[in-house]
Write a structure and sequence with these properties.
Layout lengths: L11 H19 L3 H7 L4 H8 L7 H10 L5 H14 L14 H12 E8 L10 H11 L5 H15 L9 E7 L10 H14 L5 E6 L13 E6 L7 E5 L4 E4 L2 H17 L6 H13 L2
Parallel strand pairs: 1-2, 2-3
Antiparallel strand pairs: 1-4, 4-5, 5-6
Helix pairs in contact: 1-5, 2-3, 4-5, 7-8, 9-11
């Protein structure tokens, strides 16, 4: 049985980012250098840098010492940030799937759970959050053809658990743009594709899901380089993050110029794609084409 993803906005990755950003703002407000802060916690400037970027675990003693150095005397602020440190060191909801998860993708799952808006472009497959179980298994087999049946089950269960965030209370908005080729590529066979398109017909009517299709006749378009996602968060201090998945790794971009570049590409894709009110028509046409084969 798949393990349910909890109804929470963020896991340890997001908590580390939040806490690191808050500590950085407090340090700057106090006029203290990273060198000075590192000395206070028996560390180095690079350790402070990694903490502020959310790339390491936090010791409560270090957080306490830094707050004292930064002149924070409010007990409530102390407790709130120590609570963040404890949460940052707790396992994420995906912990029980650790046997089939890489560290770089664990980070993405945390960010995805915390997002208030997910914009994604796919050229090859239906986006993971919109896949049926059978379609997901077919996609997983493409990348893990030698995996055991048990491992395929585990990976598919994980993907179905991820989908629950779209139906939880305070669900994020998902804005997906897919190439029309996705609707004609028989991943898993024609029956699996047919069921997948029928599911897209259903989910595309949900209030928090917007689906657009780039038709064949559009020719080249703004994101010819490949698939990507942009995540936006409600949490203060968290910038938008661009996620690009490779075969054996994932790339995370949060520098303003990088995010702006991908946001502009997404904006052009939305314009080049058929408008959302035509999505149902295009999905039904794809179903008709399948029946005529």
């Amino acid at each position: 049985m798949p393990v349910s993803a909890p109804e929470q906005n963020g896991g340890p990755t997001v908590r580390r980012l939040q806490l690191g950003a808050r500590l950085r703002s407090l340090r700057l407000a106090a006029g203290i250098s990273r060198d000075q802060a590192g000395y206070e916690i028996r560390g180095s400037e690079s350790k402070i840098s990694r903490m502020e970027l959310g790339r390491v675990a936090f010791k409560e003693r270090d957080v306490t010492d830094l707050l004292r150095l930064y002149g924070i005397t409010d007990p409530g602020e102390h407790e709130r940030l120590l609570a963040l440190a404890r949460e940052a060191n707790s396992p994420g909801w995906w912990h029980s799937y650790g046997d089939v998860l890489t560290t770089w993708f664990q980070n993405y799952l945390d960010l995805e759970q915390a997002a208030e808006l997910i914009r994604t472009y796919e050229i090859q497959f239906v986006p993971g959050l919109l896949q049926t179980d059978a379609y997901a298994r077919a996609v997983i087999l493409l990348g893990h053809g030698t995996a055991s049946a048990e491992e395929i089950d585990r990976r598919a269960d994980l993907r179905m658990a991820r989908k629950q965030l779209l139906t939880r209370e305070h669900a994020p908005r998902l804005w997906a743009v897919i190439d029309e080729a996705v609707l004609h590529r028989p991943i898993g066979g024609e029956q699996v594709l047919r069921e997948q398109i029928e599911y897209l017909l259903e989910v595309s009517t949900h209030r928090n899901v917007r689906l657009q299709v780039i038709p064949f006749e559009s020719g080249g378009h703004a994101a010819a380089g490949g698939a990507f996602s942009i995540l936006r968060f409600a949490h203060q201090h968290l910038p938008d993050v661009v996620y690009i998945e490779h075969l054996t790794s994932g790339l995370y971009l949060d520098k303003r110029e990088d995010v702006d570049h991908y946001a502009a590409a997404m904006g052009r894709l939305v314009i080049e794609a058929e408008q959302p009110d035509r999505t149902q028509e295009l999905l039904r046409k794809a179903l008709d084409d399948l029946r005529d084969r």
